[in-house]
Design a protein that fits this description.
The protein is of the alpha/beta class. It has one domain: TIM Barrel (Alpha-Beta Barrel). It contains 13 helices and 14 strands. The strands form two sheets. The protein has an eight-stranded parallel beta barrel with strand order 1-2-3-4-5-6-7-14, surrounded by five helices. A six-stranded antiparallel sheet has the order 10-9-11-8-13-12. Strand 9 and strand 10 form a beta hairpin. Helix 1 packs across helix 13, helix 4 runs parallel beside helix 5 and helix 6 packs parallel to helix 9.
Length: 355
Amino acid sequence: MLGYCTNVHSGDSFVEVVENLTTYSSAVQRNLQKPLGVGLWLSDKTTHEIDIFLLKDTLQECNLQVFTLNGFPFSNFHQDVVRHQVYQPDWSQEARLSYTIRLAHILSEITSQDDAGISTLPLGWKDASFSNEPCAVQLRLCANELEKIEQETGKCIHLDIETEPGCRLQTSKDLSTLFNEQFNDDEQIRRYIRVCHDTCHAAVMRESAEECVSNYQNAGLSIGKVQFSSAIEFDLEQANKASFILEEQKYLHQSSVQTENEILFFEQFSDVPNDLHSGNCRVHFHVPIHRRHFGELQTTQEDLIKSIPVLKEAGATDWEVETYTLSVTPKLLQGDEIVDSITKELQWATMQLGQ
């Protein structure tokens, strides 16, 4: 299924979730004139407030189909400054496990799919003070609960780990290594723990889809869903045209620079040295996937297009557009209002997927 992630909309309460569905998602659905897939973002706060019957009625009335949840941001994803807070709690903490299990039970009640995933963070931020072993214990407990849900409901709800630049699991290789070291050949783990492949993150880390799929297969991992997203790309000689990235303070904008000799990684675009004047720079700033250019800069749309047949061949079936930075994009670069932008992204994705 193809749809879009509702983390593009602000609001971490259940009331706001319903308002976003009836205001924005329903408008996109009317533009497309067919049932619309949505990947719901439900904060921890929302999971405690939720009215399942009201949510199901709202989805039905708006002709929306929930096929996945975004369980990465735990709390308010649109507060003034998010940055490193989005990686808390990490997977060594019980709060992350409890939140994810609540999401799994909710998803099993509202999705019509027999197989549906919840994306989650890649353990936590790389430099945070936790080890992988407690995370592995928590993931195993999560898999046990997901197995119980399938036994009770007949629905396989899986957890999809999303690698991200700067995190403990930055690359597909990091994820593969974790599973081979912590879980050996455990089949239960691999049924209920899968991969969320984010095309923007892979582009920033300079990973081809072929390389990622090879690493996933090496660890016996399936792709639970693909997050369709593009990064900003430009030569450092154009850095003066990317000043809006420096001005954006809400989210982290991890960056990589490919020079003639090496690939350099920076936690923030502002960390790129002023005396580094040339090299291909890619910045973690999700931009609309239907756009090859972003102002005077480029996007990694070409990487995204090349990845589609590879990911399809690897078994990917769920595709989620995730352009959550629309709200912090300068007005002159937005091009469209939010509903029209999401509509165009989904139309473009439909064409690329041949659906």
